[in-house]
Amino acid sequence: MTIQETAQDAVPTGTHGHGRRPRREAPRFVRGRGRYVDDITLPGMLHLAILRSPVAHARIVSLDTTAARAHPKVKAVVTGADLAERGLAWMPTLSEDRQAVLATDKVRFQGQEVAFVVAEDRYSARDALELIEVEYDELPVVVDARRALAEDAVLIRDDLPGKTDNLAFEWESGDAEATRAAFARADVRVVQDMVVPRVHPAPLETCGAVADYDRVEGRLTLWCTSQAPHAHRMLLATISGLPEHRIRVVSPDVGGGFGNKVPIYPGYLCAIVGSILTGHPVKWVEDRTENLVSTTFARDYVMHGEIAATRDGRILAVRSHVLADHGAFNAAATPTKYPAGFFGVFTGSYAIEAAYCHVTAVHTNKAPGGVAYACSFRIAEAAYLVERLVDLLAAELGLDPAELRRRNLIPPDAFPYATPTGWVYDSGDYPTALARLLETAGYDDLRAEQAERRARGEPMGIGLSFFTEAVGAGPRKDMDMAGLGMADTCEVRVHPTGKAVVRVSVQTQGQGHETTFAQIVAEELGMATDDVDVVHGDTDLTPFGLGTYGSRSTPVSGAAAALAARQVREKGRLVASSLLEAAPADVEWERGAFRVKGDPGRAVTLAEVAVRAYGPDAPPSPDGQGALEANVCYDPASLTFPYGAYLCVVDVDPGTGKVSVRRFVTVDDCGTRINDDVVEGQIHRGLTDGIGLALMEQISFDEYGNCLNGSLMDYLIPTALEVPEWETSMMVTPSPHHPIGAKGIGESATVGSPAAVVNAVVDALAPYGVRHADMPLTPSRVWEAMQGRAEPP
Ligand code: CDP
């Protein structure tokens, strides 16, 4: 791995918090001491297993649980009818739809929850599922979104009054008329249909819960795999009718989320019902197949894209129509006003006059969802669309794709930059990022090598992408989930001995928050990072907030942490002034200590202040609250917009169509970096994702709606074997509206990298007359393309 010197490396990062340091959670994980939901064992705990539909669409004719109930180790068997009696058979989704907890009338996708068993052990619960007799009356299925609105398509959502078709929603963004006018003026127009296939976030830890309902106290504790514990508590209270203040949601260590653990799943509710019914704690943990087949998928966009430009390569407009497959229930996790997520950011990193997109979302007989798989709500689809279109346009114009990008990138002096679809990018220096990428990669030499190899019949491809992410959802006036405004709270408390605790509402799933939030606070308070502890993942112990997805932790909660620490510092200044015997106005904060202006040798640290702050002669706290405590809810002014320039080099085996990624060169800018090592780790993961998405990953179905990818043998995810040595470098353009200038980075690379890989493969196949091929570019699909045939997506 090469880590280039960065702008930030040249600038002192502060004496205390920020900078490279090992993740403090690492020893716990590498020694197998992580504590995940499945590690929780409570006295008297029972185990829950879910009976799932073997078919994709059917009426339930009869359901007989007699034999299962008679199993000696079974404590409860619950059906949809049982839940319906308690008003619990349906639950709201995060996208203003509803979803069956257990099927009552019909099953609408393979793997849908039909009944559950609670037994003394996991094996008996599974065995008893086989004793439940269900008679299904099979119905026609809709598998292909392109057939969902056909006249003769079977109606999937006949549970919704008045529903007569499979339309989930329609949504548009941009100015259709201005875009039409720009297209009419253009010299060149390029059109391409492309598919971003259904994929799965596939976290290594599947979803699960342990519910413990205390009948005496009327209190529920739910340990669950949640990326958003506070939002989940509110939803669980609403659905179950249990009072919110008597529900405690604990999200312990989470083994990867990637959007998969944002929604509420029927299994969580089943575990709660199981515990209420039996009076015992109840554990439910999915197996791999359940996770892949029934929990929320991502992407599944069939896109029609158009781009218009002048002959000399100035892009005038982009336009797209998307057919979005949302499965049987619309359980996408996305802000309410944005049913197609942030797809509206599809003008990418270019100064484009006009843009318009229209999204038609449909129901099919597939698992519900449409989550932001390591991206900010559909922005991965948007970045892919525009980056493929730009490459197609370059080919049409006979221009080098790097040169076409260079001519159209948003110039640095245009920031803050308003896109034609209404987004305001905060900061960036795009041309420098591209120039640095091309120089680092040795672009001209690569093109020369490619020409030589082509002459020898060796397909080599060079792919570029330049992406802009939009991360840090809110502000809450514009963005909410299930009616909860998207803001986050942080509480900082410095104890009398000068040690601090920071409590956050976001939820790490492996991103290293325990290290980086401590660093943010340490930097602001002039303390050692090791003296700051981070508490998260427990609604009883942390302040309210919307949780972690869409790389929002640093842009939102990180800002709250910095501001709360600054408030504590302000309180400390009053105490310091009495210690230093100087007027408060004469005490300044410099180099991690309170110093007397003009006499910097007279100084005290916050740790020294802390003892006095709690002492009998402490000055009164200015806000009447704790001596060195602060609680800040940060409602972001806007999103932050990290960006990056990527270059991928591939070799294609002409005999088999197998693609090997030889090099991956990147420049990322996420503003101020808190911890370079953590940022690097996030980028490595995202780049690995990009290779998986571009070359391997797809959830597919047969004509009956059977899911064909129920294991990691069938759903391929990349390993160390498929990835090259990353060649990463950084730029730092702080966000002007974030207190420490930081932007999110968790998902940038997943958003930016698939287009670079696909552009590289298509570039390699250009001598074979290939203009486009859809992901995943498996050996067979690539080989077919080389023969002039398209394998159906
Ligand atoms: O919301 P999520 O944690 O997934 O994404 P993020 O806010 O982009 O942060 C991912 C990890 O990278 C966290 O540990 C952040 O503190 C760290 N990070 C950083 O060190 N510097 C940044 N500018 C952005 C994130």
From TrEMBL:
Domain of life: Bacteria
Region Disordered: start-end pairs: 1-26
Keyword hit for Oxidoreductase: yes
Keyword annotations from UniProtKB, A to Z: Molybdenum, Oxidoreductase
Pfam families (UniProt xref): Ald_Xan_dh_C, MoCoBD_1, MoCoBD_2
Keyword Oxidoreductase in record: yes
Chain ranges of the Aldehyde oxidase/xanthine dehydrogenase a/b hammerhead domain: 31-140
Protein name from the UniProt record: Aerobic carbon-monoxide dehydrogenase large subunit
Organism of provenance: Nocardioides humi
